Amino acid sequence: MARMRKKKNIPERLKACGDYWFAVPVANRGHWREIMGVNAEAKVFVELGCGKGTFAIETAKKNPDVCYVAIEKDESVTLAAIEKAAAAGIKNVCFICTDATLITNYFDAEEADRIYINFCDPWSKRDKPKRRLTYRGFLAMYRTILKPGGQVHFKTDDARLFDFSIEEFEASGFHLSAVTRDLHRSVWDETNVRTEFEQKFAERGLPIHRFVAELPANGEREEPFAASSINLR
Ligand SMILES: C[S@@+](CC[C@H](N)C(=O)[O-])C[C@H]1O[C@@H](n2cnc3c(N)ncnc32)[C@H](O)[C@@H]1O
């Protein structure tokens, strides 16, 4: 799908949406709940590669007690998401413009309850599988920032990426549930929130693959892979 044209006056426009965007988001590490003004027991949901923010905004709206932090690496796309959230007036969502490889700079150990990954770039196996957001090197970071029992909700239109991701999550000690290769014709469709890409794929009749991956609730944190096998380079 076509790339978004670079927006004009990005710094000024980001500053104008101050409640939704942070100039130095690393300073919020470990403090997202207080900063977002939700109670100390509120769940923290994180989304990686949130695009123009439709899913983040709708999910935050459906879960007003949750603190929702969405990450997107493209500045213009992040700005589009921020301006949409500001126009909708949703208070429990905010955005970080950064690369997901840096996620541990923004979240403390066990700070997050849930991570959403929706329609991430598939990166062919021949090309750069280590850049897939479901590669075991990323999963090692997710294991760090997630609480015991924390979840990753994953959706994709790409069957090969889906198969690869199932292997990576299972090998990384996550338990998979709610697995489907046709989400829109499953029992879970009723509660599903569609993303922008998902809506376009649905209009073309393409099936959507989805699973939920959960960490053990007992806090078992032993790293399943040797450090040399999970570096991202
Ligand atoms: C295919 S789009 C999907 C957008 C949205 N999740 C949806 O389903 O409509 C992937 C998005 O992830 C962003 N992205 C890709 N790799 C990323 C990374 N390493 N860190 C943060 N964002 C990333 C891209 O800029 C793009 O906006």
Overview of this protein structure:
The chain has about 230 residues and is of the alpha/beta class. Strands 3-2-1-4-5-7-6 form a seven-stranded mixed beta sheet, sandwiched between helices. The longest helix is centred in the middle third of the chain and has 14 residues, at about 75-90. Strand 2, helix 4 and strand 3 (about 95) form a beta-alpha-beta unit. It has a single domain, classed as Vaccinia Virus protein VP39 (Rossmann fold, 3-Layer(aba) Sandwich), CATH 3.40.50. The protein has helices spanning about 10-15, 30-35, 55-60, 75-90, 135-145, 160-170, 195-205, and strands spanning about 45-50, 65-70, 95, 110-120, 145-155, 175-180, 210-215. S-adenosylmethionine binds near residues 48 and 73.
Count of discrete domains: 1
CATH level-3 fold name: Rossmann fold
CATH homologous superfamily annotation: Vaccinia Virus protein VP39
CATH class: Alpha Beta
Helix content: 25-40%
Q: What composes the largest sheet? A: 7 strands, mixed
Unreliable spans: none
Short description:
With 233 residues, this protein is of the alpha/beta class. The protein has one domain: Vaccinia Virus protein VP39 (Rossmann fold, 3-Layer(aba) Sandwich). It has seven helices and seven strands, in the order ααβαβαββαβαβαβ.
Fill in the keyword field for this structure.
7 helices; 233 residues; alpha/beta; seven-stranded mixed sheet; 20% strand; binds S-adenosylmethionine
